[in-house]
Design goal:
6-stranded parallel sheet, 15 helices, Rossmann fold, about 45% helix, single chain, Glycosyltransferase, 7-stranded parallel sheet, 13 strands, 3 domains, about 450 residues, alpha/beta
């Protein structure tokens, strides 16, 4: 059977989102199916060090007019803009030019702020420059590949539109519309008027043509079923046990007495409330115990906002931003840390938001500290299903519990999962998904 996966994220792009689609492709190829990946061209902003075996997949990077415009901007306009700013700022006599470029820079930064806050011009909400690839990609799929099954992975939402137009041309194609993230109901990004009104209409209309709609959690399933008035099937992100087998046994950290709390992955703007709480807990701990050896390490993209918070709480000797890690390093850090941190939002709207790193944390067998999670969050059922060691803290009033767990988790003995014990195996989840799709 010919299967096409339409996705922005796929190895070697180092993102937790890449792993979900890779696990589908890996398992289905093992079962004898022909896998083609339709994806976007690489850019100079992402990390491409996710070194997984992709030789058995046909990977097609679909260029569009957007890529030509983007390349032109980076080579010509951005270069000229930068040189103008530099020359204007060094030439004291060119006052008007300096003001002009400062104004343009101010507008540009404001535009970027709005884009990040609302989710536009990225991968979450309309408008998005990646929309230019929809027509070309859908025509290529139906005319050149002629698949039996298409899986579109949202976000970006344009992957669903690619699959929709391909299926509209060939109704015999089966279509799985997979939601890693929500589109118009996204709790992080509200979009902008009037696009957010139009999006809702488009989403409901095109998803009626999908043979199967899937998502990562029961919380998102319930939300989608209400909005779309269709049944939704849950496929958790899970974990690929092979990833753990392939990493080095060499300890990632030195053998010392430092209590290491780590966070891996993206830091969303809405998480800063939880980060403030965590910083308050650590600040109080080192105030009471000045000799306490504790490090909190963020393996994430550098954030000036986070750096300001670190300084505000006088935690520069305890909290560090260390940048993204490779996949292997990330799993080693999670395995060898004292505590893995999950940042939540004590709000029912986020109950279904389950990052893929949750399953990485669970499989590492390292204790998990949840900060600011709603007590009804679906995450706690998964922890119980997997016998994970965890604590949830929602207030500075739980400081004594925090201190207690620091010492308790420091000396815990970690016991690895035995073979076939882990209930969220990516191979099993992928295999069950394909069976479901073929009988729907």
């Amino acid at each position: 059977m010919k299967i096409v996966l339409v996705t922005l994220f796929f190895p070697p792009t180092n993102s937790i989102a890449s792993l979900r689609l890779y696990s589908f492709a890996k398992q289905w190829e093992k079962e004898g199916h022909e896998i083609t990946i339709i994806t976007f061209p690489k850019n100079d902003k992402d990390n491409y060090d996710l070194n997984l075996d992709i030789k058995n997949f046909k990977i097609i990077e679909m260029y569009s007019i957007f890529n030509s415009i983007q390349n032109f901007y980076r080579k010509k306009i951005k270069k000229n803009f930068t040189s103008n700013v530099t020359s204007a700022s060094t030439n004291k006599n060119n006052y008007i030019s300096t003001l002009k470029n400062r104004f343009l820079n101010f507008i540009k930064n404001k535009f970027i702020q709005i884009s990040h806050k609302k989710g536009i011009l990225g991968i979450y909400r309309m408008p998005d420059p990646k929309d230019f690839w929809i027509r070309k990609a859908s025509k290529f799929i139906t005319n050149e590949i002629k698949p039996d099954l298409i899986v579109s992975s949202c976000g970006p939402y344009s992957t669903h539109l690619v699959a929709y137009f391909a299926k509209r041309k060939n109704k015999n194609i089966k279509w799985i519309a997979d939601y890693r993230d929500l589109w118009t109901s996204n709790p992080f990004y509200s979009g902008i008027f009037p696009f957010n009104r139009v999006e809702k209409i488009i989403e409901k209309y095109i998803l009626k043509k999908a043979n199967l709609i899937t998502t990562v959690s029961h919380g998102l399933k319930n939300e989608l079923e209400i909005m779309l008035d269709q049944n939704v099937y849950v496929v958790e992100n899970g974990f690929d046990e092979d990833d753990s087998k392939n990493i080095s046994n060499t300890p990632f950290y030195p053998n010392d007495d430092i209590i290491r709390l780590i966070y891996t992955g993206t830091i969303y703007e809405k998480y800063y409330q939880s980060i403030e709480l965590l910083f308050n807990l650590i600040a109080e701990s080192v105030k009471i115990k000045p000799l306490l050896k504790i490090n909190l390490i963020f393996y994430s993209k550098y954030s000036p906002t986070l750096e300001s918070l670190i300084k505000k709480h006088n935690l520069s000797n305890y909290v560090f931003q260390s940048g993204y890690l490779s996949r292997e390093e990330c799993l080693m850090a999670q395995r060898d840390s004292t505590i893995n941190i999950l940042l939540g939002l004590n709000d029912y709207k986020f109950n279904g938001v389950l990052s893929g790193k949750i399953f990485e944390y669970i499989y590492s067998k390292t204790p998990i500290l949840c900060i600011n999670y709603n007590t009804n969050s679906e995450i706690f059922k998964i922890f119980k299903d997997t016998n994970a060691i965890y604590t949830n803290i929602n207030s500075i009033n739980e400081f004594s519990l925090f201190n207690k767990k620091l010492l308790e988790y420091k000396s815990i003995n970690k016991k690895e999962f035995s073979e076939n014990e882990f209930p969220y195996s990516r191979a099993t989840l992928a295999s069950n998904l394909l069976k479901k799709a073929l009988t729907t």
